[in-house]
Amino acid sequence: MTLAITIGVLIAGAVYLLLQRGMVRIVLGFVLLSHGANLLLMSAGGIFRRGEPLLGRQTAGALADPLPQAFVLTAIVIAFSITIYMLTLAVTGKGDDTEDAS
Amino acid sequence: MPLLLLLVVLTVATLCVPVLDRVLGRATGWPLAVVLALLTVPVLAQGPRLWNGAPALEASVSWMPALGVGLTLRMDGLSWLFCVLVLGVGALIMAYSARYFPPGRRTGFYLLMSSFALAMTGLVLADDLVLLFVFWELTTICSFYLIGLSGPTAARPAVRTFLLTALGGLALLAAVVLLWTHTGTTRLSAVLDDLSWTRDTAFTATVAVLVIIAVFTKSAQFPFHYWLPDAMAASTPVSAYLHAAAMVKAGVYLAMRFSPAFADTAVWGTSLLVAGLITALLGAVCALRSHDLKELTAYSTVSQLGFLIAVIGVGTPQALIAAAVHTLAHALFKATLFMVVGVVDHQSGTRDLRELGGLRRVMPITATVSALAALSMAGVPPLLGFVSKENVFEALLHTPTVPWAGPVPAVAAVLAAALTVAYAFRFVYGTFGGRRLRHPGTRTPREGDAFFLAAPAITALAGLVLGVAVPVLNPIAERAAGDATHETAEAHLALWHGLNPALGMSAAALLIGALVAWGLSTTSVAVPLWRLPVRGTAIFDRLHAGVIVLGRRVGDPTRSDAPTRHLAVPLILVIVFAAAVAVRGLDYGTPVGDASRPLDWLVVALVTVSVVTAVAVRSRMAALVLIGLAGFAVAIWFMFLGAIDVALTQLLVEILTVVVAVLVLRRLPAGFHRVRPSRTVVTAVIAIACGTAAGLGAYLLTGRREPSAVSAHLLENAPADTGGTNVVNTILVDYRALDTLGELTVLGVAGLIIIAVLRSMGLSEVGRLRPTVGRDNPVWAADANTVIMRTVARVLIPLLVVWSFYLLARGHNASGGGFIAGLVGGAAFALAYLVAPNASVARIRLTYPAIIAVGVLIAVFTGLLGFVDGSFLRPLHADVPLPWGGHYHFTTALVFDVGVYLAVVGVILTALNQLGLPRPDSAPAPAPAPARRDAATGGTR
What was the ipTM of the complex prediction? Predict the structure, then answer.
């Protein structure tokens, strides 16, 4: 429930920002969107077991699913590289208005 | 004779063209003519076997066995006739081409002509529907290039021809697929032998209409007739081949081939008969109106094809005999006429009837050859055209297809034939007749040489010889018509059948034609025949433009650079899908375990507050900070979920994102753009709907099952498989190392793209975000203000670097790994960048693209090392004994992680250096220049 609410809030904020004029706002929306998507991936793995998947420290039954974690880890780094790329696009040319009539 | 050999030899000949052309130039036509002629001989030799009732020759090579599609060839009487025409006429036209073109290389022409011969041969021999379609399309493609070869003016006709014949090709494809799925086989002979599928009348009618479209577009039948005269933009040998033996005859062949299947389908016979006769009349009228000899001949082809299609529409064995003979007759006289047009054009410099006349005085052989062909076309005995046309009349008189039409087909045919007589006369008399010698040039035209005239002379004489000795054609026609109709056909080809209606029709046609010709020749004015109100090409161009405009209209909503236009659509679709699922309802299952903890609510509150305020503020900097805050909250979430590595990564990425974003923001205005309140409302509604959908989706569709089997497997086997206990890291560098390699590459490419984008477009000017404090304000002194930070950084940066190495090394067994270590190392550089007192100190002099490249290369190299153990990216393990006892477990997965580390660091360096600093080449000239000027002015004082 708590994670679902977080995802909902993040996605709502992301969509609102994605539909704005300025490129920077769109990029920030994209950042929130990636947060939401990453949490959704975690949620898909099941979140009632929350033990760190470091073996030899806890009993195996309580450990969280490591696969979504691996996915999310790489996803975060990829999202980072895409974010800085989009930020670059925001500052090439004049300003970051995406709907400039001229 | 192995049929495949035909195609193999033609393919080899085609492939040899570039070499031959380099050596021989235009004379390449000779060896190609020899090849085609040599291939004609064994084909001809098969004739007597076939006439004696031998079964059709077959050959097959496996092509797509899984689909049951084979390279299956079959030569029966019908295929034999067309094959002889394609190869024989092809040989003559190749020989003619060797003399027609001015000396020089003709690679494109000969390459395409021999491909054309190959495609046509394959088409008439194909016994597989798919193969048939492939060769059919190959002829379309060849004709497109052959027409387009003639220069810029031919571009439009080439495109028009291509689009129209490709339309027919699509119809044929649809027919092929329908037949294939319905009958379960792609063997053409099997489909046509077992006609049980024709009992489904609606299906048969559909297939018939599709085949009709294919035939009509290929064979230039009304209303698609206009492409053929349009295509005369091609060079004359191309036209000769296209009109006489190839391309248009493909449609005739297909119609004859499919005639048994559609014998009882009303739409088939009626369409062919009606469209054929309209085309015959229309083509004849247009031919009579043309002044250009080539255009006249092209329209004559249209008209003669109309006769052929109409008589195929009649469908009786007698009609198919007439069609077979007329196909042969037409190939002979039309090849002759086109080649003669080429000769006249070549020798006199024009092919306009208004500028020509009396050429018989200087070109007697050409005149005789054209007269023979024209007489055959006009249907004058004893030429072959007379026999074939009389058979066409005879067949049309006994039309079972449209009994209600009565004598109309016969009358229309006689009229068209009469006009044929008139334009045949016009062709010959206008060019060669008349009292005065007329030609545009100053030099008197000379007769073409023997090599030039040989090919047209052969075809013209063949028309005469076969006309006189027409009974020899009986077995050919019988077998062809028999194989086409699947009924026994008896041919009684002869010059004299006694007094019968067909003879009367021939006589009437000749008489009316002679009167028309006489009428026209005595009036010296331009031919006073009516002109069609519209031209086919104009209609086509209008339709073509219309389709493009329509496409543009359809695409208009997406023709925008604004991301909103593109992003809104999928977002709204998400809402629609979510609503659909909500209405429909699903079995969501019951939640497994307790997914919420009390402490979670704290993070929920933090995320909510930061997101809500981030979307509401207008200051860019505030929004950035609040988004960063949301990111930290998400990192805490990851920590709560037991994903400590992910949380660390998230934290570091958040820091670096904010650092990079600040570098960007100082180049932009302080506030966001203002938008209309109404837009804000709409956006908010979409956003809330999407958020609700996502939240509900996450709640209802996840967390309702036990941990997956994959999870259990990984947790159980990771140490044994990989020697690591940090399961997440083992997945990254071992189990799913290929994914990581891919992601690494994306990372590296993003870094390189940033460099490329900034190189090509440059950064916007810095300066709109100047500090607004005065010089006396303590904040002004940047250098003094960072003293504490610099002091801390001096200690912290080496620590960060060392820590990053440590994280990298231990990643396999404890939290850490290449990504996290790389981010920590990157953070060290970011700190170094932030505390730098000015730009030149901040500039990081490492070659960051090289670091990215080295990182990716190390990862790939480690992957290749994996081949030692059998597969790409499989880690190798070794236990290294340590001097103080024990072992260090070394694995190449660690080296792979070093690659990850370097790529991440490289990208961060790229972002800092590219976005944070003015480019060295675009930097304003620094202090020395003004200083020099000061010195200079000081000197003058």
Answer: 0.96
